[in-house]
Q: What sequence folds into this?
């Protein structure tokens, strides 16, 4: 799956489940730029798992600082199948 397709999916999830109305770009920071607190981060993780049919693990989530980090992690999981 292409990075652009994953980014579009992340944007879809953010808009549908986090009421995000702005653009979603790879360089955006999850907490600071998308204004995610712990509950909203949990919601994002759960909905990403549902949307892409992947599992995100707690130790992986701690390494995610930007939307680009999330896109790369999702791509690696989707590509592994």
A:
């Amino acid at each position: 799956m292409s990075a652009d397709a994953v980014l579009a999916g992340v944007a879809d999830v953010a808009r549908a489940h986090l009421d995000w109305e702005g653009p979603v770009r790879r360089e955006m920071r999850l907490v600071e730029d998308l204004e995610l607190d712990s509950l909203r981060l949990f919601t994002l993780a759960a909905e990403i798992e549902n949307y892409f049919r992947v599992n995100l693990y707690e130790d992986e989530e701690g390494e995610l600082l930007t939307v680009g980090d999330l896109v790369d992690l999702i791509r690696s999981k989707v590509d592994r199948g």
About this structure: Helices lie at 3-18, 38-52, 58-61, 67-80. The chain has one domain: 3-80.
